[in-house]
Write a structure and sequence with these properties.
Shape: globular
CATH topology: Four Helix Bundle (Hemerythrin (Met), subunit A)
Strand content: under 5%
CATH class: Mainly Alpha
Helix content: over 70%
Number of helices: 7
Oligomer: single chain
CATH superfamily: CDP-alcohol phosphotransferase transmembrane (TM) domain
Strand order of the largest sheet: 1-2
Number of strands: 2
Order of helices and strands: HHHHEHHHE
Number of domains: 1
Largest sheet: 2 strands, parallel
Length: 214
């Protein structure tokens, strides 16, 4: 197994470890939960960089990398609802967006189309990671009333970016619905289409349509 894939697998295995620390009482466990999540989130950029630098882009990496990211963030959000840190409706909104966009990508792939991650999609991911890190930090450091207000700001920003970026993906992927109605439609490059945002580089086989990492 390549080094980037080992890092991706480690991120998947870190998810249950993060949840164990999150639910245990005590300052040490709160710090450990914050450290595990931060390292796991950082590893997302590391494995993608190494995959490109070492020319070790694999089918496993394309499949597992976005799943590892979603597992980690979803585990955090669902746990925060149970722990009373977040209300249910924003988490449901964020997760619904993830399911819908994933379904859109599956539909697009069936028509030979690739929907590249956009700048909004990447900002969405950063906002979700930032929200989780902020909540983990407030669980240890407190931060008082202004910390609660700031958490609300991060939360609404994360929800807004999830909805707006999701709408943008469906706008760029609308060709997939036309293709589903009439199979055989091809993209402008012959065998497949590349549905990317303005200024984005063409998709390369083995790349990660989720975030351009792998």
């Amino acid at each position: 197994m390549t080094i980037p894939n080992q890092i991706t697998l480690a991120r998947i295995l870190a998810t249950p470890l993060f949840m164990v620390f999150l639910y245990l009482e005590g300052t040490v466990f709160k710090i450990l939960a914050l450290a595990v999540f931060a390292l796991a989130a950082l590893s997302d950029a590391v494995d993608g960089y190494l995959a490109r630098a070492l020319r070790q882009e694999t089918a496993f990496g394309v499949f597992a990398d976005p799943i590892a990211d979603k597992l980690l963030v979803t585990a955090a959000f669902v746990s925060f609802v149970e722990l009373g840190e977040l209300r249910a409706w924003p988490v449901v909104t964020i997760l619904a967006r993830e399911f819908l966009v994933t379904g859109l990508r599956v539909l697009a792939v069936s028509d030979g189309l690739v929907i590249r991650a956009s700048a909004l999609g990447k900002l969405k991911t950063l906002s979700h990671i930032g929200l989780v890190l902020f909540i983990l930090a407030t669980r240890h450091f407190g931060l008082g009333p202004w910390g609660r207000e700031l958490k609300e700001v991060f939360l609404y920003l994360a929800v807004a970016l999830a909805v707006i970026s999701g709408a943008e993906y469906f706008w760029r992927g609308r060709r997939a619905f036309r293709g589903a109605a009439g199979r055989g439609q091809r993209g402008p490059r012959g065998r497949s289409g590349d549905l990317r945002g303005p200024g984005e580089p063409p998709y390369k086989p083995g790349g990660d349509p989720e975030g351009g990492l792998r």
